[in-house]
Amino acid sequence: MKRDSDSGGKGRPSIVPTISQVAKASGVSRATVSRAFSRPEMLTEATVRRVKEVAGKLGYVPNQVARALSTGRHGNVALIVSDVANPFFPPLIRAAQLRADQAGLCVFLGNSDEDPAREELLVGRFIGQVEGLVLASSRLDEEHIRRHATRRPLVLINRDIEGITRVLIDTAPGVAAAIAHLAELGHRHIAYVSGPTTSWSNQQRRNAVRREAEKRGLKVIAVPARPPSYDTGRLAATQIVASGVTAAIAFDDLVAQGLMAGLAALDVEVPKSFSVVGCDDVLGETTYPPLTTVSARCADAGDVAVGLLLSQMNGGVSGEIRHKLNSHLVIRASTGPAPLKRRGR
Amino acid sequence: MKRDSDSGGKGRPSIVPTISQVAKASGVSRATVSRAFSRPEMLTEATVRRVKEVAGKLGYVPNQVARALSTGRHGNVALIVSDVANPFFPPLIRAAQLRADQAGLCVFLGNSDEDPAREELLVGRFIGQVEGLVLASSRLDEEHIRRHATRRPLVLINRDIEGITRVLIDTAPGVAAAIAHLAELGHRHIAYVSGPTTSWSNQQRRNAVRREAEKRGLKVIAVPARPPSYDTGRLAATQIVASGVTAAIAFDDLVAQGLMAGLAALDVEVPKSFSVVGCDDVLGETTYPPLTTVSARCADAGDVAVGLLLSQMNGGVSGEIRHKLNSHLVIRASTGPAPLKRRGR
DNA sequence: GAATGTGATGCAACCGGTTGCATGTCAAGC
DNA sequence: GCTTGACATGCAACCGGTTGCATCACATTC
């Protein structure tokens, strides 16, 4: 076979020792070396110490791949997101990573770029080498997801499929609060700038807007911004202004930020003549003016998802779990009283 | 042993077939099945077809882990970044991912959170399961990096260590252009808002500022923003205004954006009374006012780095490679003529 | 028709760990 | 002193692939 599995591409072999070499050097069997690392309670304290000492001297590190082959536990989990570049995800990724780390796991990251086919490809490539998967804002259809879930523990984020463990960021309360906030400021006509039709979050937000607006007797129009981005938000400004509404609530912060830029370009002042609310709270105070938004705790979602995955991997968890994370409104400076000329119509 | 390595945590076993089962079902040896997938040119066309047909029917997929054990090729690469949440990295990650994908590789993502110890831990955990590593803005010391590089092909991004393949985003020309731009607008005193001292990019940018300013007879002061972020940028505003400069060039866009917020809070108008230049061009037009910045092609860096890693993994590449990516100034709306009262000193 | 060559396939060892079971040792209990 | 049992360790099979080498069938050549 003549491998040199552990030499760099270039020079020195710098072979890493195997279990056999440690066994020989410390005068015990391979089994004993193995147990010194994975089940030390089976051995004499003295033996463990001696083996570990020799191992340390030789620079031995158990080969994760070989171990995975015989135990089926590779110590890896996969995280697939729909768009790394969307500021919603980095905090989520970071938190997921951190949680996995604490459990001694490595994270495979996949970026589907909103493309179901790519997502399916990634899952296929990952699934053989991971113990579990987290799919954030998956664009896969239900059937595919269910199939993958039979092969590996799987947790969804912001996707609501019965029988599969999922973490849902429930923005409905926050959105409702936002509508209430706008109503109190005197707005009677508002726009919802909507995101991907296949997105669970979008459906949830749209419904919350509708419900709450109806309750308070506000009129709502929907304007699309697809795919959700700064640019599509900016482009939506014209249509929104033309529709005569005095406030808008956007699918996410990025769209809201774009919308504000579009409004500025049309000389519509925020919040003096128009109010804007975002969603996710991923931009903090960095917009101009600082954005009133629905805080979505995206980092928590990553943390919780990996946590649930872990407990599922460790055999626990029989029943289905549907973990909801709540949200709240963060009022900053992009919302203000409805302009007089339009107020109360 | 009684594993059921491929059942989900819950119910049905849904066993994935092994090479032996395919062999039996198609009436050939395990070796032949193996070759049908990894070296089909060794077999009759008819045999390959028959084996693959059976395999397809059974839902057989070669076990990546087992393959890795015997060949040493796991089909994985690692990418470690210093901060996923910094907008500099997502495009880089995305591009790296895409490139790896095309080569059929999976990506392990690590986030060191600017902590060398964490970074070292991650490398240790990854190195046994990957064929190569990309370290972006590594905070590891040179000795560690060299050691890892002897074990696996390794490519650095924005870190300049002799003898190790590296991709450097050369912002010096862009920074020089920025200084020239400010000089032409009449600024005579400027500030450099500096980033991490251990960062190669920071050193490079600081030097470029100094060199070009000296050439044009501008005075430069340095003000730290550490760690580089929106908040530290904002906090630096007071000191910068007090120092009497009329323009600042920041370590990165995030710091620049924070600085602009800090200036706004002090009622200093940008660009009317103060000019700001960023670095990296990761925020596009989304700041207010849109930021004049040095474009850094971070996505290209990810793409190129993985490309170099691939060629290194495939045995090629004897000599050392030091790939430079150039930069240029993007002028938007955060820079303008020096205010009169201060101009010409 | 025997010798030779060629190309497809199988055999069996191997990668580096883990683990069920057998063995061996030693102390306690009768 | 012998049985019993607990406990530490070793043996050898196994995980699911890959691959060097042997074998075998068949075609070619003289």
From TrEMBL, chains A, B:
Domain HTH lacI-type, first and last residues per copy: 17-71
Entries under SUPFAM superfamilies matching the protein: lambda repressor-like DNA-binding domains (SSF47413), Periplasmic binding protein-like I (SSF53822)
Stored InterPro entries: HTH_LacI, LacI/GalR-like_sensor, Lambda_DNA-bd_dom_sf, Peripla_BP_I
Gene Ontology terms, MF aspect: DNA-binding transcription factor activity; transcription cis-regulatory region binding
Pfam families, A to Z: LacI, Peripla_BP_3
Entry keyword set: DNA-binding, Transcription, Transcription regulation
Protein's recorded name: LacI family transcriptional regulator
